[in-house]
Amino acid sequence: IFYFNDESGSTSTDPSSITGPSTICDGETAMLSVVATTLDPNDDYVWYSGSCGGTLVGTGSTISVSPSSDTDYFVRAEGPCGETSCSLISIVVNSVDNGLTSVDGVTMNATANGAIYQWVDCNDNYNHIQGETGQSYTASANGDYAVVVTENGCSDTSVCYNVNIIGVEENGLS
Question: What is the CA radius of gyration of the chain?
Fold first, then answer.
């Protein structure tokens, strides 16, 4: 543990640890907090990403971060007379492949392999289509459809795909 004295005679000590999630989903926010240590009234906790003293992220005992890729966060006490050592937390960012392709204008495929799927009707408030939990879905009516893909503990919804060809050949309009 590193201590430093400032003009008031008080000392700040190394942050003992950081609380917060070690894994989040892409697009989520994480709250990071310093576990209570001795902090001189003239000092503040300073947060960095990448390395201790690297890219400044913020100040205070708690910060909110939204990394788009795996990131290391560091915090230390800093003041007029120096700084403590850093504590580290690493955050892994899980993403979801929410891609969607169409085979023939009626059948759609989620591009993620080995995930959990739920097809939804975009025109019906994204309500689940009963029983449609496979990687592919063949529409039985014209409309807009999407798939909710869950992988790595995260879920994301694809763009809506418009199906507007069912019944064309039946009417002789091919």
Answer: 25
d(CA 7, CA 25): 44
pLDDT at position 170: 47
Residue 7 pLDDT greater than 90, yes or no: no
**Closest by alpha carbon to 30, among 80, 71, 75, 83?**
71
Structure tokens of 50?
A: 């990448």
* Residue 113 CB burial class (10 angstroms; 0-12, 13-18, ≥19): exposed
**Two structure tokens written together for 56:** 């400044």
Q: Are 30 and 65 in contact (CB under 8 A)?
A: yes
Whole-prediction pTM value?
Answer: 0.76
Q: What is the spatial distance between Cα 119 and Cα 53, in angstroms, rounded to a whole number?
A: 46
Amino acid at 100: L
Identify the DSSP state of 53: T
Distances in Å between the alpha carbon of 160 and those of 86, 100, 110? 46, 9, 12
